[in-house]
Amino acid sequence: MTRRGKQRAATERLGIHAEAGGWCTIDKIPHPPADVLQAADNPRLRPARMRPLGMLGAALGAPFILVITFFEFLAKAEEAVMRSLDTRDEKERLRVKKEDEKRRRDAITAQQGIDKVFDGNWHGDAGQFLLRWYGHSTHHQRLLLATTEGIALAAPPRRVSAGREKHLQIVARLSAAEATLADPFSGEFKTRMLLIRFQDGSWLRVDTEEFRSDLHMYVLRQPLTGS
pTM, whole model, 2 decimals? Predict the structure, then answer.
């Protein structure tokens, strides 16, 4: 079964109709101030370590990862061969375009402060949600689902090395009035980054497994706020 097929089967088991979905991770959670930690009952701030049996499962699955990596390598090699056929002017235009895109992407990232996992306000909605992230599940990934009602996050209760879809449970829900998904680059760049924007203006950054995932395309199809 394909990755998307597994994802659809998992959402059906969960009883959720998702407009779009994708696996995502978050960056390392910074250490909160002592008073914030105490008020939140000293929450877990890191995913669980992989167990020995889980490491064995990962090792057994390594050949499949190598196959996928091999095909990705072939795709990149094909792209490199096609580029080698470009004229000197075409290569120069491509180089200038890439440098310009990187400058603009870096400028937007710095301007919005989205090089961090969240906006930095532990008392905001995003900060409080982040404190509960690994309390919901010790797994290092989340299946983020965009629904007509809002956002749902699913994960295995505990960290697993394989068969993550089989162990899925809903670990958090956010209504459309509480939070929405946003692409901070408005689709201008092909990235993995998405923001969960909360109603109080705070935000949490997630990184999808795929560049310009189904979630990105879903966000770009939504009407702009106030339009």
Answer: 0.79
